[in-house]
């Protein structure tokens, strides 16, 4: 993981075009050419950053496969909110034994663990290791190569 990159306390608005047209992952025919473009916009700061003063960004820099099942890939940017109380099922950014990692928080047999999305990696029991939770991952920004 890369070092922390804090979000701006009051990010400037950046409204980008966001047409009303919906998109499907499967085949469904063609949209009507008469569909109006209504000039809607979307501000990703508003959409992805709920609490700017408690939000920071991290970049996944390893080349491993431990979180691929959860849609987290090397190079992805994580939007992390430190104001959220972690609950089972949340993806966390944490400092474990001096290493910053991203894992899913789970209860296994009523014990807390940090788990990978790959069964080849053993869950990390909390309480047996030194762990400092930095925050809950709210979003993952994944870019496709072009």
TrEMBL record:
Residues 29-137 form the Peptidase S24/S26A/S26B/S26C domain. Pfam families: Peptidase_S24 (PF00717). InterPro entries: LexA-like (IPR039418), LexA/Signal_pep-like_sf (IPR036286), LexA_repressor (IPR050077), Peptidase_S24_S26A/B/C (IPR015927). NCBIfam families: PRK10276.1 (NF007621). This is DNA polymerase V. It comes from Modicisalibacter xianhensis.
């Amino acid at each position: 993981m890369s070092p922390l990159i804090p979000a701006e306390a009051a990010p400037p608005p950046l409204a980008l075009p966001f047409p009303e047209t919906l998109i499907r992952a499967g085949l469904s025919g063609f949209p009507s050419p008469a569909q109006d473009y209504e000039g809607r916009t979307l501000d990703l700061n508003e959409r992805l950053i709920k609490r700017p003063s408690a939000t920071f960004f991290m970049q996944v820099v390893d080349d491993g496969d431990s979180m691929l099942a959860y849609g987290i890939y090397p190079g992805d940017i994580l939007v992390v909110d430190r104001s959220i109380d972690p609950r089972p099922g949340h993806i966390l950014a944490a400092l474990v034994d001096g290493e910053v990692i991203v894992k899913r928080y789970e209860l296994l047999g009523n014990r807390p663990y940090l788990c990978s999305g790959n069964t080849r990696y053993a869950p990390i029991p909390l309480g047996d290791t030194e762990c400092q939770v930095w925050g809950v991952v709210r979003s993952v920004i994944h870019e496709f190569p072009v």
